[in-house]
Amino acid sequence: MKKEKIDDVLSGHRKWLAREANGVMANLTGANMAGVDLSDANLRGANLRGSDLREADLIGANLTDADLREANLTNADLRGATLRGADLADAKMFNANLVAADLREAHLCGADLRETNLAEADLTDAVILPMWSLRRQIAREISGKKP
């Protein structure tokens, strides 16, 4: 996706967040934004499902309540980013940098977190277990069987 198009989407999203006329929620479903600089961008509540954000600069970005299901965040830099309540289910986050990121209440079920740097990240109330693992754990607890 070209930088000009991304800038247009971000501008419309800013207006939407401010409830201004002509504001439109950012819908970047499946967009190719590999390597793009989105540092400090406000993408609160945006739809980024299945988007390609490999090696993107998302330092300090606000992704609160964003839909990032199945997004590719491999090698992305999300230092200090806010992902509170974001849905990152099945996201590819291999080798992503999430140092000091706010992941409170984020949904990370099935996310690939291998080699991801989560130093100083806040994972309070985040859901990390894959659903199949959670179901199996609950079934064990109900049946009284030990793991």
Tell me the number of strands: 0
> What do we call the CATH topology?
Pectate Lyase C-like
Shape, per Cα inertia axes = globular
Order of helices and strands: HH
User: What fraction of residues sit in β-strands?
Assistant: under 5%
Helical residue percent band: 10-25%
Which architecture name does CATH use?
Answer: 3 Solenoid
Low-confidence stretches: none
What number is the mean pLDDT?
Answer: 91
Nearest-angstrom radius of gyration?
Answer: 16 Å
N- to C-terminal distance: 47 Å
Q: Structural class, from helix and strand content?
A: mainly alpha
Tally of contiguous helical segments? 2
The biggest sheet, with number of strands, parallel, antiparallel or mixed sense and barrel status, is: none
What's the topology here?
Blueprint: H1 3-17, H2 131-143
Give an overview of the whole structure.
The chain has 2 helices and no strands. The radius of gyration is 16 Å and the shape is globular. The chain has helices at 3-17, 131-143. The chain has one domain (1-147): 3 Solenoid (Pectate Lyase C-like). The chain is mainly alpha-helical.
Q: Which key features would you list for this structure?
A:
147 residues; 0% strand; Pectate Lyase C-like; single chain; mainly alpha
In short:
The chain is mainly alpha-helical and 147 residues long. Helix content is 19%, strand content 0%.
